[in-house]
Every structure is written in structure tokens, then in C-alpha cells.
Task: inverse folding
């Protein structure tokens, strides 16, 4: 084999590997903008948001709610539709205690390589069951594992929904309570959106153990308050200024309206575009987890 041919082969291989890396980052990193904007950090530097994925699950969602109520904290719960249908009483309790509810798909699938129709069905079925239980359709959506796919941004836009990811995570699928507290507090930065879990991939209660998350919550709350932070649900974080920090090169979303059912998507709001926003102070931390890491306890 000639040197020139070998060089071309190696160059092609390097290009292919680089393309795979860029795609993996774009699909799985919360800070990536390849597949559309998402809220990853709040606008008020004095506030942080606790978010809980994959519930509701008995008994852990109730125990999380007990801790939040005892400490006077409001959070955001990204619920799987199938789990919500199993435990409507927990969904109503989340609503009644003043927490925010988001859509986390019906069955917690990996969205990559799914068709537009299949992704839309996961979202719409969950919207329907949450509306039936609570009387409202959520505005916020978080994809399972934080992994996006090409049709997702358009599907959310048509429904008047918005995507929220996270800036920090407690790795509560891997660590004990002390480790979750230490990891979460070490990452806290102004406006942090923290990823935790009260369920596990929409699985039935007997297959879930989130006792470490419940045990870690008081330490996270007390430690964050000692550091000078307040807690707020995502809606307050988002509305703190007219220009929330997002992964979309720090652009604004339009002010959200009530979410729409799929058949309403041909109105004027479907044609809105994002406005350019001011660039906030630079955050020098390296952002996000790679796609391969996303499957190990994320989202």
C-alpha cells in the first residue's frame, strides 16, 4: 500500500470518528445546540432548581414530596405517562403542593432513530394523561437520558412546548446518599438546574430503589442554602429575566402560551422564530455528558 493511499485512509477514518463525536455531543450533551434550544440554566443567579425524572413511583415520589414540603422547597417533576397512569394520586399531590409538572414521554425510550410519528405519540399520550389527571397540559418537556433526535424540536414547537435539560446532576443512579450530596453541591453554580430521580425509566415500583435520593435531599437543600442559594421551580427560573440562559447560543424563546394539542399547530404561533438575545457572562465549566454517559442514570 502506498503512503498516499494510507494517508487518505487514515484521514477518512479520522473524519468519520470526528463526525460521530460531533453527532454524539449534539444528541446527548445538554449544552449542545445542534438539535434545537433547551433551557439548561436559570436566569436568576441566586436561585437553583431541583428536577426529578422518571416518576411518579411508590413510595419514593411521596417521600421526595415529604422532604420538599418539610424544607419549604418547590421543584419540577418530569413524569412518564405510563407511571402517571399507575399513580394518579401522586400526580395530583405534586400539583396540589405547588410543584411544576413536565412531560418525560410515555415509556422512557431512547429517542434517537425513532420516527417523527413515534416520538409525537410518546409525547401526546403523556400530555393527554397528565391533562386528564391535573386539568392542564405541561409546557416543559425533557427527553429521556437527555438524548434528542432530529424531529423533536419541531414536534415541541407545534405543541407550544419547550425543552428543559440540566446544568448539574447528582448521579443518583450510581452513588450512595453521601456521594449524591457531595457531587450535587460540588457542581452547584448560579442558576443551576439539578437532575435527580424519583423513579427509574418508568418501571413498576418493585423494580425501583430511589432511597438514596430521598436520603440525600435534606443535605442537598441545607448545603445549597448555606452557600447562599434559594430554590425555585423552573417557571420562576425561566421568567426571572426576559433573556434566560439557554443552550441555543443564549437566545430567547418566545413567551410560552398554553400548550396546544397536535391538531392546533397550523396557527400563527407555529411560524414564530427565536430572537437573538444578549450573551451572558461566560461560564468556563465544561458542559454536559456525552451520549454514552447519558444512558447511565441520566434523565
Result:
Amino acid at each position: 500500500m502506498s503512503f498516499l493511499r494510507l494517508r487518505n485512509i487514515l484521514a477518512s477514518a479520522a473524519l468519520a470518528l470526528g463526525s460521530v463525536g460531533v453527532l454524539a455531543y449534539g444528541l446527548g450533551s445538554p449544552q449542545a445546540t445542534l438539535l434545537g434550544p433547551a433551557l439548561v440554566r436559570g436566569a436568576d443567579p441566586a436561585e437553583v432548581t431541583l428536577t426529578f425524572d422518571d416518576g411518579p413511583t411508590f413510595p419514593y415520589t411521596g417521600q421526595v414530596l415529604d422532604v420538599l414540603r418539610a424544607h419549604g422547597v418547590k421543584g419540577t417533576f418530569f413524569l412518564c405517562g405510563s407511571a402517571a397512569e399507575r399513580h394518579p394520586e401522586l400526580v395530583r399531590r405534586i400539583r396540589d403542593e405547588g410543584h411544576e409538572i413536565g412531560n418525560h414521554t410515555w415509556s422512557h425510550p431512547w429517542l434517537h432513530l425513532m420516527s417523527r410519528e413515534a416520538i409525537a405519540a410518546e409525547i401526546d399520550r403523556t400530555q393527554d394523561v397528565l391533562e386528564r389527571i391535573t386539568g392542564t397540559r405541561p409546557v416543559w418537556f425533557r427527553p429521556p437520558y437527555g438524548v434528542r433526535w432530529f424531529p423533536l424540536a419541531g414536534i415541541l414547537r407545534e405543541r407550544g412546548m419547550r425543552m428543559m435539560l440540566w446544568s448539574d446532576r447528582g448521579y443518583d443512579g450510581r452513588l450512595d446518599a453521601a456521594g449524591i450530596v457531595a457531587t450535587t453541591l460540588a457542581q452547584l453554580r448560579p442558576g443551576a438546574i439539578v437532575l435527580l430521580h424519583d423513579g427509574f425509566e418508568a418501571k413498576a415500583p418493585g423494580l425501583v430503589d430511589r432511597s438514596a435520593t430521598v436520603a440525600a435531599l435534606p443535605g442537598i437543600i441545607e448545603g445549597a442554602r448555606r452557600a447562599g442559594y434559594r430554590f425555585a421551580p423552573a417557571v420562576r427560573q425561566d421568567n426571572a429575566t426576559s433573556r434566560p440562559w439557554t443552550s441555543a447560543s443564549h437566545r430567547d424563546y418566545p413567551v410560552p402560551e398554553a400548550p396546544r394539542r397536535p391538531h392546533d399547530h397550523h396557527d400563527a404561533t407555529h411560524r414564530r422564530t427565536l430572537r437573538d438575545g444578549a450573551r451572558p457572562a461566560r461560564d468556563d465549566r465544561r458542559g454536559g455528558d456525552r451520549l454514552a454517559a447519558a444512558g447511565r442514570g441520566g434523565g
Q: What stands out?
A: The mean pLDDT is 78. The CA atoms of residues 56 and 90 lie 6 Å apart.
